[in-house]
Specification:
mainly alpha; three-stranded antiparallel sheet
Length: 180
């Protein structure tokens, strides 16, 4: 069943399983092999016995059956944090490049077209920028061009001032959406 879940959900299932599992409290060995023991509410209980014939690497893997996956999950989490930090750094560098007159960090024209098709953005334009009702995607696009004082959305990818005004409008929209 877990094989059919997306990777993120499988990872969360594994994380929950590792978190809830009881680690071995003791490892005993005798002439029959190695025995993993856990502490419970009563007497310690053997949860696994491995015969002497079990290869040493397999014994070690089974003995560390909680520790190893927990460590791997920790490594995945650390890698995800580093990836997110790098993505933020890259986005910041793109914005700085754009502010210095470099090419836009995004295709703002396409972003504007998508926003104008978004019902929440249209409501934002009605409430904050006097978009007349009944509002459509086309009237929303016309209102955005009017508010930003541009002739066409393509100016958002060419004119740094227009792009800056667009980014400000998007920030205003995001703040408005969080409050609504």
């Amino acid at each position: 069943m877990h094989d059919r879940l997306p990777a993120r959900e499988r990872l969360e299932c594994y994380r929950a399983l590792i978190t809830s599992a009881t680690p071995p409290s003791d490892v005993m060995a005798d002439t029959e092999g190695m025995h993993l023991e856990i502490s419970g509410p009563g007497e310690p209980e053997i949860i696994c016995s491995l015969p002497v014939s079990c290869p040493a690497d397999n014994r070690e893997l089974i003995r560390r059956h909680i520790e190893i996956p927990a460590d791997l999950i920790g490594m995945l989490d650390a890698a995800a944090r580093r990836d997110a930090e790098r993505r933020r750094e890259i986005e910041q560098l793109r914005r700085e490049l754009e502010a210095k007159g470099g090419r836009p960090a995004k295709d703002y024209s396409a972003e504007c077209a998508m926003k104008c098709a978004e019902p929440a953005f249209v409501r934002f334009l009605i409430e904050r920028h006097d978009l007349a009702q009944p509002a459509t995607e086309k009237t929303a696009a016309t209102r955005v061009r009017s508010v930003l004082a541009i002739a066409s959305r393509s100016a958002l990818n060419i004119d740094p001032a227009a792009a800056a005004h667009w980014r400000e409008m998007v920030r205003e929209f995001e703040a408005w959406r969080r409050r609504v």
